């Protein structure tokens, strides 16, 4: 995220920032994708929240802080350049640091081998495209095995929501072979279409965990808490009778999980209230099932007034220490269908299965991978589909779970797991430090 003192003039300077990485052990390189606003992003978000609508879209995308020379508003502009040695293999740690952008990422004429996601090892998976949502990381091996020359690294949005505006620019960096011929124009990869959900799903659903990793733990085979959580957008009441907001039907845009639209407490944090046993800050009545069963992914329900309104609540789910929690995230078509990258704090989870349509416990449980599922902390729930995760609640405290699209978080697409203390000092939440700040 770039702030307002980095002006568009600097964004569009003609400059190449070079990384000479041939001497790095490994070598390991970081490729950070991001978004750029020609304003303070906090001001952008606050303006949208005040009006009850979505924030304005970003002005550019970046790779390692620079938009590249395909940026429509100013050419040439800043571009990151990575020099590689022919024959060497590099570990690229690809990070999506954007607020609202999910991306397709490719390197022209090069295949990549995925070896890790969200700091957990995967079985090697060969691909020519990486799909990455906000907050996700993907580790890939890149072998410099092509003809010496210049090749673009490029990324543009995976825009899964139909009819929602987005910046259609492509951000680029340059992969440059040392001692290459005097090539002046890099080769540009062909990126998938913005709405290419089959490619996004194929990438996500083909990743598996590396069970020979020293950090691998077997998947819990029994479940203590079995939850079905609907996720999606909705509306909340604008305000006074004479007030009109910028959301659909003049209301305030909202989002929810099981029709509970999460609102942060203002008096004290949930964690402090839990530790000090203070009542009235939160409730523990977040439901294991949606309050209403309907055809979740039927687009005919998108603007059903009986389904759109979401109450604002600070409700969490309480679970016992070391219990096994299974969550079926069920996407809905309310307002529109899109991919929601769901992120869990405090834990990694196993991704047991993913699919499209409404989850069917009778048939879809047969698809569960209980042997070597991918392990991660952020997962894109497929457009108009579902995903099943499982984790062991062995970390006491209060842990946020939410959509990692920043536009949806303040709208309420969140809740928290309150994990009770265990029976030992090691499994008990420690007291706050002596210098703990007080409101």
Automatic annotation (TrEMBL):
Q: Which GO terms describe its biological process?
A: lignin catabolic process
Pfam short name (any one): Cu-oxidase_2
Q: Where in the cell is it found?
A: Secreted, Extracellular space, Apoplast
Q: Which residues form the Plastocyanin-like domain?
A: 33-180, 286-421
The reaction(s) catalysed by this protein are: 4 hydroquinone + O2 = 4 benzosemiquinone + 2 H2O
Q: Which InterPro entries match?
A: Cu-oxidase_2nd (IPR001117), Cu-oxidase_C (IPR011706), Cu-oxidase_fam (IPR045087), Cu_oxidase_CS (IPR033138), Cu_oxidase_Cu_BS (IPR002355), Cupredoxin (IPR008972), CuRO_2_LCC (IPR034285), CuRO_3_LCC (IPR034289)
Q: Which GO terms describe its cellular component?
A: apoplast
Q: Which family does it belong to?
A: Belongs to the multicopper oxidase family.
Q: What is this protein called?
A: laccase
């Amino acid at each position: 995220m770039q702030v307002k003192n980095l002006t568009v003039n600097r964004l569009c300077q003609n400059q190449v920032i070079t990384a000479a990485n041939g001497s790095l052990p490994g070598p390991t390189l970081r490729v950070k994708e991001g978004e750029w606003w020609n304003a303070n992003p906090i001001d952008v978000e606050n303006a949208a929240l005040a009006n009850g609508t979505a924030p304005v879209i970003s002005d550019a995308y970046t790779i390692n802080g620079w938009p590249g020379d395909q940026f429509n508003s100013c050419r040439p502009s800043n571009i990151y350049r990575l020099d590689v040695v022919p024959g060497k293999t590099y570990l690229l740690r690809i990070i999506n640091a954007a607020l609202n952008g999910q991306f397709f990422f490719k390197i022209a004429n090069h295949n990549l081998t995925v070896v890790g996601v969200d700091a957990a090892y995967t079985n090697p998976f060969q691909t020519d495209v990486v799909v990455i949502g906000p907050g996700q990381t993907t580790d890939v091996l890149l072998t410099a095995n092509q003809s010496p020359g210049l090749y673009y690294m490029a990324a543009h949005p995976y825009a899964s929501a139909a009819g929602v505006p987005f910046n259609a620019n492509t951000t680029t960096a340059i992969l440059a072979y040392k001692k290459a011929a005097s090539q002046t124009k890099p080769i540009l990869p062909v990126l998938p279409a913005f709405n290419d959900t089959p490619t996004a799903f194929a990438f996500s659903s083909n990743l598996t965990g590396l069970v020979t990793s020293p950090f691998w733990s077997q998947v819990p085979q029994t479940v203590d808490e079995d939850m079905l959580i609907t996720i999606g957008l909705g509306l909340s009441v604008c305000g006074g009778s004479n007030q009109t907001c910028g959301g659909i039907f003049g209301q305030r845009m909202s989002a929810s999980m099981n029709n509970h639209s999460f609102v942060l407490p203002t008096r004290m944090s949930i964690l402090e209230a839990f530790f000090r046993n203070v009542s009235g800050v939160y409730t523990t009545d977040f439901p294991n099932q949606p309050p209403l069963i309907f055809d979740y992914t039927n687009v005919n329900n998108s603007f059903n007034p009986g389904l759109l309104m979401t109450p604002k609540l600070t409700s969490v789910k309480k679970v016992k220490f070391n219990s096994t929690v299974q969550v079926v995230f069920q996407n809905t078509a309310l307002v529109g269908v899109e991919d929601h990258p769901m992120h869990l704090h405090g834990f990694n989870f196993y991704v047991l299965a993913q699919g499209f349509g409404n989850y069917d416990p009778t048939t879809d449980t047969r698809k569960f991978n209980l042997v070597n599922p991918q392990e991660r902390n952020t997962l894109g729930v497929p457009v108009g589909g579902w995903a099943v995760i499982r984790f062991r609640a062995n970390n006491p405290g209060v842990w946020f779970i939410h959509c990692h699209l920043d536009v949806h978080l303040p709208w309420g697409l969140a809740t928290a797991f309150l994990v009770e203390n265990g029976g030992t000092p090691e499994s008990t939440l420690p007291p706050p430090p002596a210098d703990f700040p007080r409101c």
